[in-house]
Each structure stands twice: as structure tokens, then as C-alpha cells.
Design a protein that fits this description.
The complex is a heterodimer of chains A (about 675) and B (about 220).
Chain A: H1 3-27, H2 33-57, E1 66-68, E2 77-79, H3 83-106, H4 119-132, H5 136-154, H6 161-189, H7 197-202, H8 209-224, H9 233-239, H10 242-267, H11 276-296, H12 300-327, H13 331-366, H14 377-380, H15 382-395, H16 402-415, H17 423-455, H18 462-465, H19 472-490, H20 492-498, H21 500-507, H22 534-555, H23 581-597, E3 600-604, E4 615-619, H24 623-644, H25 651-672
Antiparallel strand pairs in A: 1-2, 3-4
Chain B: H1 3-25, H2 29-54, H3 57-85, H4 97-118, H5 124-146, H6 150-170, H7 176-204, H8 209-215
The chains are: A mainly alpha (about 675), B mainly alpha (about 220).
């Protein structure tokens, strides 16, 4: 296949997605219209993923850009699959294809499909435009299109005030983020206005690179959900229909990561040593705060959204390490950190989509997102529970699943930090490593809570007691994602090897080929130093489980007796008295609460003799919201109030304002000379 | 171009500034209209003189338009409107004359200060012409701001437009099409404002714009 044809195929795929979006408007009103659109999306995305895989595996096959005759008068729209684009195109399209399969079943339950169906392919197409764009204009156009389409999905399902607020906050943050990216590209393009990425690489930036780094961190970070720009994410991601939430959380944040890598690693030139410091600090804080907030949530989808914040932190830790190593003259270590980050992007897109789909299945079956009203669903929805459990294990970074491998690779990179030439990153990186370890442990606690209070125990509300297992399409999609989580966990060497082209093009080095290692193990630096064999771990787990089962069946008593569970001596039959998700989070809230959340507990006790209820009220704050957003909101409100007066002036006063402005400007011109 | 030619051009442009001051000061309705007619006549002479100096015959057309429309037609029409509205006896309540005149002088000074350094490259003749034109524009704006009566505001607008035409003729090479379209737009503006005057009057029994403000529930 010639390179040109490959990119043309990809461009055709995007065109098909946009066509599906247009087609979605009339078709979604038909009874099986949404299935048609989602099914076509799944097919097109699988095709795009296959094309991208080919471009990634065959070096040099996707470099000649397709030039489209649309865009700015000065520039052209260039689309191509270079290694970085191809890697992210695989990640995005693979997850999207499977989520679309889920949507075939899930979309039947939508009350107003015409508000969701047309925007879904548009959203997917826009993400692909961003990934394939090889010039700043089409990148930004795709980025904005992606923001708008996902905003439409956020406000599609529910017209409650909270949802509309989520949409508004999202829109404002998206606009601000796109604005900073526009400025970053403006600086990179230089005074000649060279907006294609090829010329940007060659020309020197017009401004200091520090500004580019800061703008990229703000612009891409606001979309990805870096603290303190994450505030929109736990509002907007859960508000969308569940398959759209899965895409926003599992896939769209990855497009933002792509934007950051593209600008900072590819276009901004060789990094200075201090670039890694702000990235690492922000990433560490993001990882820790994200998981702590997730622990405090008892809305299942919000919990998952906060968890995305944590995982974005982990990914950016990898990227910060790659910057530090690249600037410190350690290209192989930089390649390791970069591959760890991109591999975690891939893994997160799988298990976060899986978890959101599981949450969607639960929401569909029970109508509840609040974990305090769920419970016992493992009996009602066993397959969903199994798939969700796999997702929980994977996101908690337990072997043999994929989350473990990428976090392990990140730790391997952290352990190389003593070789760094500067002492500030040498001191900082271990601290970040400790933060990462802490957040990984908290993540495990968080998913014990999520799985336990949703699927185990007894139903806390009637809705959870009457749930039925979800449809086959949805189950198939979830099991497929679970299988991929396991597959990427036990065969990580192929993923690492296929990313060699990416690290070669961005940091100028690649890791030793992992597929040549014996017994499917991976050893990124040196087998003597560290190695991991996912297949072996998997085999041992299976062997131990089978052995235990045999021993139990052979030697244990076969007598079966059903009896009530021991209830600590309190014969309280109400399911509300079970250990709940906030009970689970309470110790951690006690440890971190007063500082991180400014948590306050108010206990209202009835007077002696009064038979009224005692109340425990809990107050939690997001400090980023309090410190950063509230002042801005207050300022805008005050300024709007002041400016409001200008709306009701008399004509003469308006004339006077114009006149005064004219005279003032003339005075300035006169004084200037 | 002899010094006399330049002096005559300056005399005419300067007279326009002077007439603008007269407009600013005038508080009777008919006198205001008459002085506006004078303003337009001086403009016409000034443009004609420019046409003579620049040997640009199309500027004679501009002068003719100024003379016919602004010097005769519009003042007569406004005169009839004022009579029909029955406001010919009313006195324009100008914001106290003294400060307004002082402010107007400051504006003239400002326009000279601004214009002379900016246009250093151009000839002395054009520079001063432009400074005069800017003064007239600013004085017209000042008049619109200080008048309470709608007729006064219309006159202020028209005198402002006269300043623009003066500037346009001073800068050579202004195409005739532009001048005609400017003149035409003024005519349209006049028609629209005239219609509005009647409409306002029908509704509020007054052309004092304060009545409009009050109808919106605001105190004047």
C-alpha cells in the first residue's frame, strides 16, 4: 500500500464519520436508526484503527500528507498518519469502535435519540481530525469541533439546571483552552505565519519556549483535566449519556494528551532541563487530588470522572519524566518514560471505557448512579459485575492486567532518575514517585469501594433489587474490553515494540526490542535490573486458583447449610444499615479531609427525650474551585452588574460616550507625539 | 498656487469653523436653521474654490450638491417641519453656552495639535485644511451631545457631515462616486430623521428627546 493511499483511506474514514453525523439527523427518528448509525461508527472506527495500525507498524508508510483544498486562504489542510498520530489514532478508534458496539444496545433506551445520535459520529470524526492534522489550522478547527460536539452530548440527555451548568462550565473551559492553544501555535508559527507542522519544526519560535510550554500545559491540560483546570470534568463527563461519557473520559482526554505531546515534544524543539519541573509537579498533584476526590464521591459516574483526573496525572508524570530525561541527555530513559505514558494512555482508554460502560449498564438497569442506593447487583447482573471487576482490577494496577504494566514502566523510569545531571529533578522525581505510589494505593481502595458498594452486599434501594442484566451488544462490548485489558497485560511486549517509531521520532531513541525476550517477558532497560512477565503471573494465578478449587472440592465437607450472616450482634435487618460507600471513605476523609477538602462534619443531635432523627451533615470543598474559579466568577458577576447600567442609557448619553472616547483617543495621539 | 489662493482656501475653511461656533451658540430654532444654511453655503464656496485650485471639474458637482441640498433644500424642508410641528417659538435649551464655547475652543486646539504633526508629510495647505475639517467634525459632535431638541441634533449631525466633505475635498483624488454617495446618505438620513421627528411628535406631543427617556420609565 503506498503511503499516499493510506492517508487517503484515513481521510475517507473521517469523511464517512462526518457523513454519518449528517445522516444521523433524519435517520435517528427511525425505530432502528440509532443502531444503524452506531453500527456504522463501529465499522468505520475499526477500519480507521486498522489503517493506523498499518501506518504504525510499517515505518514511513504514513508520512506523505493528504492535502485537502479547504482551510485558511494562506494554508492548506494537511492530514497524515505519522507515528505519533497513528499511535493515538489506534487508541482512539479501537476504544470508540467497542463503545459504539455498546451503544448499539444502549442507544435503544435513549428517550430522545435525535439529540444524541447525530453528534456522536461528529464527535468521533472531530477527534480523528485533531489526530491526523498536520497543520495548526485543521488541528484547532478539529479541536473546537470536538469540544462543541461533546458539549452537545453533555447537554443532550437531561435538561436539569445542574446539567446546563455543567455544559456552561465545560464550554467556557473549552473556549479558554482552545484560545491558549491558538496562542501557542501563533508563537510556534513565527512571524512568517508558517502554520504547517513541518515548517514549524524547522523555523524558530517567535517567542520564548517557556511561554509555549505554559500555554500547552494550560490548553491541553484544561481538556485533559490537570488540576486545577479539572473542575469541568467531574461535572460534564457524568452528565452525558454513558457511551458518550466513556468516549469523553476514556478517549477525548487522550486527544488532549496527544495535543500536549505534539506541541511540547515535537514542535517546540529541544527541551530545557527545567521544563519537566512544572509538568511533574502539576502531574503529581493531579494524580493525588484526583484519586482523593474520587474516594469522596458516591456518584458512580462522578467517581469514574475524578479517576480520569488521577490517570491523566499518571500519564503526565510519564511525560514530565520523558522531558527531564531528554533534556538530561538520557534518550533511552526518555523513550522508556514516553512509552510508559503512551502505553498508559492506551490502557486507560480501555479500562476507563469499560468502567463507564459498566456504570451505564447499571444506570440503565436501576436508574441510579448513587452508590448509596445500589448494592447486591452481582446477583442480578453477573456478567456486568464480572466485566466491571476486571476493569476495577486493571485500573487499580494489579497484575496480570494492563494497568499494572504501564505503571510499572513509569516506576522503572522513576528509578532511573538518579542518573539525571541536575539536582532539582533528581530530588523532585522520587517525591513524585512517592505520590504516584500513594495514589495507586488509594486508587485500589477507591475501586474496592466502587465495586463493593455497587455489586456486593444487599440492595440499598428497591431499584437495585429489580434490576435485570443488560442486553447482549452491551455485554459483548464490555467483555471485549475486559479481554483486551487482560491481553495487553499479559502481552505488553508487542505494544511496547510497536511504539518504537513514536519514541524514535520524538526523543530520538527506542527501547530494546521486547519481542525477542524469552518467555514473553518484558525488560525495558536490562533483564538483570528488572523484568516482568505478565504471562507467568497469569499462569500462576490460574494454576493457584485451579489447585485451590480442586483441593476444596476434594477435601472440604460437601454439606451445605444456609444461615443468616453474622451481624455483630445487632439484629438490624434494614439494608441501609450496611457498610456504605461513605463509611468506607470515612477514614481517608479523616486523614486528608481537613486539608484537602476542608471537610466539616455537622452533627445535629435531638434533645434527650426528643424522638426526632439525629443528623450527620458533611461538607466538602474542592479547593481548586474555591481558590481559582469562585473569585473569577465573582469578578465577572460584579463587572457584568456594573456594565449592565450601560444598557439603559439615553441616546444623548451614548453619543456623549462616543464623543468622550473620540476626544480621549485624540488627546492620547496628541500627547504621544 | 499663489499665496493668495491658499489664503482664500484657508479663509473659507476657517469661516466654516467660525460658523460652527455660531451653530453651537445659537438657541433659537429659525436662527439655527439659517446659520446651518450659511454653513452649507460656505462649504459650497470652499469646495468650489478647491475645484478651481485643483482643476478638478467633478468637485464643482460636489459644490453644487452642497449648495442645492444642504444650502437650500434641507434648511427649507426643516423650516417647514418646524412650522408644521409648531415648535418655531420654542427655545432650544442649550447646556450653558459659556462652558460649551470654551470646550469647543479646546476641541479646535486639540484637532490642530493632533493633525499638524500627524500629516507632516503632506503639504502645509492640506494639513491645515484637515485640521479645520477635524475641528468642524468635533464641533458637530459636541453640538449633538449638548442639544436636547431632536432638530438641534439633526443640525449637529449635518454640520458634522459638512466637515467630512471638507476633509474629503482637501485630500486630492477623492473619487466623485464617494462624494455623491456621501451626499446621498446624508439625504437619506435627513428623510429618516424627518419621518422620525413626526412619529415622535405624534406620540409624545414634543420633539424634546427627554420625552423619549421618560417613556422608558426614566427620569430626565
Amino acid at each position: 500500500m503506498t503511503p499516499f493511499l493510506l492517508n487517503q483511506l484515513a481521510a475517507c474514514g473521517i469523511g464517512l464519520l462526518l457523513l454519518l453525523a449528517a445522516l444521523g439527523v433524519p435517520v435517528s427518528r427511525l425505530s432502528s436508526g440509532s443502531r444503524l448509525i452506531y453500527g456504522s461508527c463501529a465499522l468505520v472506527c475499526s477500519g480507521l484503527a486498522a489503517v493506523a495500525l498499518y501506518a504504525l507498524l510499517v515505518p514511513g508508510s504514513g508520512t506523505a500528507a493528504v492535502e485537502l483544498p479547504i482551510g485558511l486562504p494562506l494554508g492548506r489542510t494537511l492530514l497524515a498518519l505519522d507515528p505519533l498520530s497513528a499511535a493515538f489514532a489506534i487508541i482512539v478508534n479501537l476504544a470508540t469502535a467497542i463503545v459504539s458496539i455498546f451503544a448499539i444496545g444502549y442507544g435503544r433506551h435513549a428517550a430522545e435519540p435525535q439529540r444524541v445520535v447525530p453528534f456522536y459520529p461528529a464527535f468521533v470524526g472531530a477527534m480523528n481530525i485533531v489526530l491526523l492534522a498536520q497543520d495548526a489550522f485543521s488541528f484547532l478547527a478539529g479541536w473546537e469541533f470536538m469540544s462543541l460536539a461533546s458539549w452537545a452530548l453533555v447537554v443532550s440527555e437531561d435538561r436539569s439546571a445542574g446539567n446546563l451548568k455543567a455544559g456552561l462550565v465545560y464550554l467556557i473551559m473549552a473556549t479558554g483552552g482552545a484560545m491558549t492553544l491558538l496562542l501557542a501555535f501563533g508563537i510556534l508559527a513565527g512571524p512568517e505565519g508558517a502554520y504547517s507542522f513541518d515548517t514549524m519544526r524547522q523555523t524558530a519560535a517567535a517567542g520564548p519556549a517557556a511561554i509555549v510550554l505554559a500555554l500547552a500545559l494550560i490548553g491541553a491540560g484544561s481538556k485533559a483535566g490537570l488540576v486545577p483546570l479539572h473542575a469541568w470534568l467531574p461535572l460534564a463527563h457524568p452528565a452525558a449519556p454513558s457511551h458518550a461519557s466513556a468516549l469523553m473520559s476514556g478517549v477525548m482526554t487522550k486527544v488532549a494528551v496527544y495535543g500536549f505531546i505534539r506541541i511540547v515534544f515535537d514542535l517546540a524543539g529541544p527541551p530545557s532541563w527545567w521544563w519537566s519541573i512544572p509538568v511533574l509537579i502539576v502531574a503529581g498533584i493531579t494524580a493525588l487530588l484526583g484519586v482523593l476526590h474520587a474516594l469522596m464521591e458516591h456518584d458512580l459516574k462522578r467517581l469514574l470522572a475524578y479517576h480520569t483526573v488521577e490517570n491523566i496525572g499518571i500519564i503526565f508524570i510519564g511525560l514530565g519524566l520523558a522531558l527531564a530525561f531528554e533534556a538530561g541527555g538520557l534518550p533511552v530513559a526518555a523513550a522508556l518514560a514516553l512509552i510508559a505514558a503512551i502505553f498508559h494512555v492506551f490502557n486507560h482508554s480501555l479500562f476507563k471505557s469499560l468502567l463507564f460502560l459498566g456504570a451505564g449498564a447499571v444506570l440503565n438497569a436501576t436508574g441510579e448512579r448513587d452508590m448509596e442506593r445500589l448494592g447486591g447487583l452481582i446477583h442480578r447482573m453477573p456478567v456486568t459485575a464480572f466485566a466491571f471487576l476486571v476493569g476495577c482490577i486493571a485500573i487499580s494496577a494489579l497484575p496480570p492486567f494492563n494497568g499494572f504494566v504501564s505503571e510499572w514502566l513509569t516506576f522503572q523510569a522513576i528509578l532511573l532518575s538518579p542518573q539525571l545531571p541536575q539536582w532539582i529533578p533528581r530530588l523532585l522525581v522520587p517525591a513524585i514517585g512517592a505520590t504516584l505510589a500513594c495514589s495507586a494505593a488509594l486508587a485500589a481502595a477507591c475501586f474496592v469501594k466502587a465495586f463493593g458498594s455497587t455489586f456486593l452486599g444487599r440492595a440499598r434501594a428497591a431499584a437495585a433489587n429489580t434490576a435485570v442484566e443488560t442486553d447482549r451488544w452491551s455485554l459483548g462490548a464490555m467483555l471485549l474490553l475486559a479481554a483486551l485489558c487482560l491481553g495487553a497485560g499479559i502481552l505488553p511486549g508487542f505494544a511496547i515494540d510497536s511504539l518504537a517509531g513514536v519514541s524514535e521520532s520524538l526523543v530520538g531513541a527506542q527501547l530494546a526490542a521486547q519481542s525477542s525476550q524469552p518467555w514473553l517477558r518484558i525488560a525495558p532497560i536490562d533483564p538483570v535490573r528488572s523484568a516482568y512477565n505478565g504471562m507467568l503471573v497469569f499462569a500462576m494465578i490460574v494454576a493457584a486458583a485451579v489447585l485451590t478449587a480442586i483441593v476444596v472440592r476434594r477435601f472440604a465437607s460437601h454439606g451445605l447449610r444456609r444461615s443468616p450472616a453474622w451481624d455483630c450482634g445487632f439484629p438490624e435487618a434494614s439494608p441501609v444499615a450496611q457498610y456504605s460507600s461513605s463509611s468506607f471513605a470515612q477514614p481517608i476523609r479523616r486523614v486528608f479531609g481537613s486539608v484537602v477538602f476542608r471537610a466539616r462534619e455537622h452533627v445535629t443531635m435531638p434533645k434527650p427525650g426528643d424522638t426526632g432523627l439525629a443528623r450527620l451533615q458533611l461538607e466538602l470543598h474542592d479547593i481548586a474551585w474555591d481558590a481559582l474559579y469562585d473569585p473569577v466568577i465573582r469578578f465577572v458577576n460584579v463587572a457584568a452588574d456594573r456594565l449592565n447600567a450601560f444598557q439603559f442609557l439615553t441616546i444623548r448619553k451614548y453619543l456623549m460616550l462616543v464623543f468622550a472616547a473620540l476626544v480621549l483617543l485624540l488627546v492620547i495621539i496628541g500627547a504621544w507625539r | 498656487m499663489t499665496p493668495l489662493d491658499t489664503d482664500i482656501a484657508h479663509l473659507l475653511a476657517g469661516s466654516m469653523v467660525l460658523v460652527s461656533f455660531l451653530l453651537l451658540y445659537q438657541d433659537r430654532m429659525f436662527a439655527l436653521l439659517n446659520i446651518f444654511a450659511v454653513h452649507a453655503w460656505v462649504l459650497a464656496f470652499s469646495v468650489a474654490w478647491q475645484a478651481h485650485l485643483q482643476q478638478a471639474p467633478h468637485l464643482f458637482i460636489t459644490a453644487l450638491i452642497a449648495l442645492v441640498f444642504k444650502g437650500v433644500f434641507i434648511p427649507v424642508a426643516l423650516h417647514r417641519i418646524v412650522v408644521r410641528l409648531g415648535i418655531h417659538r420654542s427655545i432650544e435649551s442649550v447646556v450653558s453656552v459659556g462652558p460649551t464655547m470654551l470646550f469647543g475652543m479646546a476641541l479646535v486646539a486639540l484637532s490642530i495639535v493632533v493633525m499638524l504633526p500627524v500629516t507632516e508629510a503632506a503639504g502645509a495647505f492640506v494639513r491645515e485644511d484637515l485640521a479645520f475639517a477635524l475641528s468642524i467634525v468635533l464641533l458637530g459632535l459636541l453640538m449633538m451631545v449638548t442639544r436636547r431638541n431632536a432638530v438641534g441634533q439633526v443640525i449637529g449631525f449635518m454640520s458634522l457631515e459638512n466637515g467630512l466633505v471638507l476633509a474629503a475635498t482637501g485630500a486630492r483624488g477623492m473619487p466623485l462616486v464617494v462624494e455623491i454617495s456621501v451626499a446621498f446618505s446624508v439625504l437619506i438620513a435627513f428623510i429618516i430623521i424627518g419621518i422620525f421627528l413626526f412619529r415622535i411628535r405624534e406620540r409624545f406631543d414634543s420633539v424634546d428627546v427627554r420625552a423619549l427617556d421618560m417613556s422608558r420609565g426614566e427620569s430626565p
